[in-house]
Amino acid sequence: MLYNKILLKLSGEAFSGDKGHGINRPTLVSLAKEIKSLVDSGIKVAVVIGGGNFWRGRDAENYDRVTADSIGMIATVMNGLAFRDVLQSEGISARVMSAVEVPRFAEILIIPKARAYMENGDVVIFSGGTGTPFFSTDTTAALRALDIKAQAIFKATLVDGVYDKDPHKFNDAVKYDSITYMQVLQNRLAVMDSTAISLCMDNKLPIHIFNLDIPGNIINILKGQLIGTIVKEN
Ligand code: UDP
Q1: pTM for the complete prediction?
Q2: Which residue, among 44, 9, 10, 230, has the nearest Cα to 150 in the 3D structure?
Q3: CA-to-CA distance for 36 and 55, rounded, in angstroms?
Q4: pLDDT in tens, 89-101
Q5: At 175, phi and psi to the nearest 5?
Q6: Is 122 in the pocket of ligand 1 (CB under 6 A)?
Q7: CB of residue 127 inside a 6 A radius of ligand 1
Q8: Is it the case that residue 174 has pLDDT exceeding 90?
Q9: What are phi and psi of 147, to 5 degrees?
Q10: Residue 51: CB within 6 Å of ligand 1?
Q11: Cβ 161 under 6 angstroms from ligand 1
Q12: What number is the average pLDDT over the span 139-150?
């Protein structure tokens, strides 16, 4: 296997299925089955969850940004709790940690504890974003991957990789198999926000962009298949 410890970034929209909003349990069940195949193969998995299926601070007009982002961070905790429930019902031992304090519902984020849980084979769900407004859960994914010494980020998307232009709008859009952090930043490609990309670049953390709708994609990438796009140094 290419890596034995990965961080999976799931955006909120990956939770809503066809509904486009909120949480669709059957969608979570398929995600959980993907994760189970990884855990069963001995891969240690952490998950960072977005909140866009409920709320995105930057889209919330007329609200103070700090308040809007606070609501967004709480949305990620809701997703985290739902996903733990589904993971557990699929027989996966899972923990939710939160960077914002909601002690009745989720453990406060303590990195050594998260690492210990992962050593133990638990899937750790990092919710609450960074705990700070003006950041994204993509940046959270980069930070937590570094915190737990994951070897790569797997960022799930609805297309099958990174293209030079929007494949929904242009027939001649070309998919990259591999691309550098610098190309992503210079061409403003919609991979992750620039804070997240910069963190990955400074720490040489590879990012795999792949289509979440195709079962087996993550494990097949781990087995060395050329799927999606890898973002790396060169
Ligand atoms: N958020 C934040 N700080 C963080 C992470 C998230 O303030 O460190 C807020 C922000 O409002 C963001 C929302 O939480 O829009 C949901 O996160 P994100 O937009 O990254 O979710 P996704 O697009 O991945 O579903």
Answers
A1: 0.97
A2: 44
A3: 28
A4: 999 999 999 999 9
A5: -85, 140
A6: no
A7: no
A8: yes
A9: -55, -45
A10: yes
A11: no
A12: 98
Pairing label, strands 123-127, 107-108: unpaired
pLDDT of residue 229: 97
Interacting residues of 199 by C-beta distance below 8 A, sequence separation 6+: 139, 142, 143, 146, 205
User: Among 131, 12, 20, 144, which Cα is nearest to 69's?
Assistant: 131
Q: What is the DSSP string of the chain?
A: ---SEEEEEE-THHHHGGGSSS--HHHHHHHHHHHHHHHHTT-EEEEEE--TTT--GGG-TTS-HHHHHHHHHHHHHHHHHHHHHHHHHTT--EEEEESS--TTTSEEP-HHHHHHHHHTT-EEEEESTTSSTT--HHHHHHHHHHHTT-SEEEEEESSSSEESS-TTT-TT--EESEEEHHHHHHTT-SSS-HHHHHHHHHTT--EEEEETTSTTHHHHHHTT---SEEEE--
Distance of CA 46 to the CA centre of its chain: 9
CA of 95 to the centre of ligand 1 (A): 20
Question: 4 alpha carbon to ligand 1 midpoint, in Å?
Answer: 27
Q: Which amino acid is at 182?
A: M
| 10 and 153 Cβ atoms separated by less than 8 Å | no
* 158 CB-near residues (< 8 Å, 6+ apart): 13, 211, 212, 213
- Residues 161-171 pLDDT 10s: 999 988 889 99
Ligand 1 pocket test, pick from 58, 135, 137 with the greatest ligand atom count within 8 Å of Cβ, gives 137
